[in-house]
Design goal:
Length: 380
């Protein structure tokens, strides 16, 4: 008698769905992808192309799988709720994804849980924004509650005049904007963990992320020179978020380590995350394998490191012509320790085109090798 094949459907055809393909094959999982357009990053696993915002398209896709999960958080809640009403297993569920889709709702929920955050306010007028700026040292971070990522939908403001366009079109953002304290931080950290449906959860080591123009550029795993107190605090924060809002699968909690010693939640992502790509080579169980295990409610794998240090460097497009492939031989020859991942995307300045990971027992060596391989690829 043949064992039942487990079928996971991923909505979204980006690089995260692409990187779920190999662990799905290894686990004997049938992975299907609903891609937005032909030729997506996850083309190898794409079984359907369509508009995921349309309930009937999502229903047709859901009928072919056992569990629905995501490459991104942009599927409308109404679509997810309709699938759940049909009896479809949606992981993470719509009740959790609601807080990843709307930063204002996230702040409200985390505030109700008493979790540490920058000072923030819901903004509906220029007067309210100017008052918040005045109360917070003369400048603030202003965000659109929905739709922003990788530096988009975020700006530094020193007066309401800096956001006149957003304020004039505030209806496009649900009627409100989100103002936050501009945190004076030492560095940015990310705590990844995974939680399965029945409640088991496991964290990866805390990592440090380094940003370039609002986009993650480098990830250091584990985060260097972190106190035991900070490690405990960040792990507790991630666990509290996952439990309280019912996250299943991988959860990334991005945080600031403020100069005054505070650890403050910046953003949440309920899916495999850029800060966890190091785990493909750097951990016993990668975030992509763990996500599949978790959404299927299978026992979670070990998150122990395979080496003392892992460094991940993003390959960010520099122009519209270099897709890195032409420099593969040079990079592989010069940096044989480097593991190079490409995302099958057309070249575009600033776009995440791939990443390089190096694992080693020496942190400086791993960083130099990863940056060196990335430089060769970027030069073409």
């Amino acid at each position: 008698m043949n064992a039942k094949v487990l079928r996971v459907g991923v909505i979204g055809g980006g690089q995260l769905a692409r990187m779920m393909t190999v662990p799905a094959i290894n686990l004997g999982i049938e992975l299907s992808v609903l891609a937005e357009q032909p030729g997506s990053s996850a083309a190898l696993a794409t079984t359907m192309v369509g508009d995921y915002t349309q309930i009937e398209v999502a229903r047709e896709f859901a009928n072919t799988v056992d569990v629905i999960t995501f490459d991104h958080e942009h599927v409308p809640l109404a679509v997810l709720e309709a699938l759940e009403a049909d009896g479809v297993s949606v992981q993470p569920p719509s009740k959790a994804l609601a807080f990843a889709q709307n930063k204002l709702h996230m702040r409200q929920r985390l505030g109700a849980l008493g979790l540490p955050m920058p000072a923030w306010a819901e903004i509906q007028s220029a007067v309210a924004l100017d008052a918040f700026i005045a109360e917070n040292g003369g400048e603030a971070i202003l965000k659109t509650p929905i739709g922003g990522y990788d530096g988009k939908g975020v700006r530094v403001v020193r007066s309401s005049a800096d956001a006149s366009d957003w304020l004039e079109n505030i209806g496009n953002f649900g009627g409100s904007l989100l103002a936050e304290e501009k945190v004076d931080f030492v560095r940015e950290l990310a705590q990844l963990s995974a939680r399965r449906l029945s409640g088991e959860s496991k964290p990866w080591p805390l990592v440090q992320t380094i940003q370039e123009n609002g986009v993650c550029s480098v990830v250091l795993a584990p985060a260097p020179e972190v106190s035991a107190e900070t490690l405990q605090r960040t792990a507790d924060i991630a666990s509290a978020v996952a439990e309280a809002i019912g996250v299943t699968g991988v959860l990334a909690v991005e945080m600031f380590e403020a100069r005054d010693g505070r650890i403050l939640i910046n953003e949440l992502a309920m899916r495999p995350h850029n800060s966890g790509h190091f785990s493909i080579e750097g951990s016993v169980t990668s975030q992509f394998e763990q996500h599949l295990r978790a959404v299927l409610d299978l026992p979670l794998g070990s998150t122990a490191p395979r080496a003392t240090h892992s460094v991940m460097v993003n390959l960010l497009g520099v122009d519209d012509s270099n897709n890195f492939v032409q420099a593969f031989d040079k990079a592989l020859a010069a940096h044989p320790e480097a593991k190079i991942h490409t995302y099958g995307k057309g070249a575009r300045a600033g776009r995440k085109m791939g990443h390089v990971t190096v694992v080693a027992d020496d942190a400086a060596h791993a960083l130099a090798q990863a940056k060196g391989a990335a430089a060769v690829l970027l030069q073409g």
